[in-house]
Amino acid sequence: MTSRTARPPTGDDHAPHAADAVDADALARFVERFAVVLTEAGWPRMPARVFACLLADERGELTARELADRLRVSPAAISGAVRYLQQISLVTRAREPGARTDHYRLDDNVWYESIVHRAAELRRWEDGLAAGVEVVGASTAAGRRLEESRAFFAFLRGELPRILERWRAQQARG
Question: Alpha-carbon distance 71 to 77, whole Å?
Fold first, then answer.
């Protein structure tokens, strides 16, 4: 297999950068392998591929056309995947002043921000489980199971700020 540059030329490309020397075939294999890991964790396939592609891009930012070219899919597939990733706060859309092309990008702290947004989700799960305990009764086997689940998510949500604070401190230390 021949080595190509990681960034096939398109009208949307920015100036060349250090990542241009990356073997495009190896990069494409990484993107597909990591997308499989995400898919096995429950992610839809196309959003997993788009996210992995953005994560492995030097700028962490690509246009829909660049994503479609790199992943060899239709722009419609990219549109749906990006919409999903925006809904779960992993990707943002931006447009350069005066341009007509949207750029999809990852925040520098994409995982941190994702986890911060999950705290509200954990709270909704707690509330839903508490409602289930009321329905089946706290003294039943199902009620105890639901309450244990609710308590776990409450614990996790309570610990999350401390974990994130420790992460910020570790990042600040370098």
Answer: 10
Give the phi and the psi of residue 152 in degrees, each rounded to 5: -60, -45
Last residue of a domain, one of 105, 125, 158: 105
Residue 64 lies in a domain: yes
Query: Which region holds residue 104: left if phi is over 0, alpha if psi is between -120 and 50, else beta?
Result: beta
Same domain, 44 and 93: yes
Q: Could you tell me if residue 6 is inside a domain?
A: no
Q: How many domains does the chain have?
A: 2
Residue range 25-39: average pLDDT? 96
Tell me the C-alpha distance between 116 and 165, whole Å: 11
Mean pLDDT across 14-29: 71
What percentage of the chain has pLDDT greater than the value 90?
68
Q: Is the pLDDT of residue 48 over 70?
A: yes
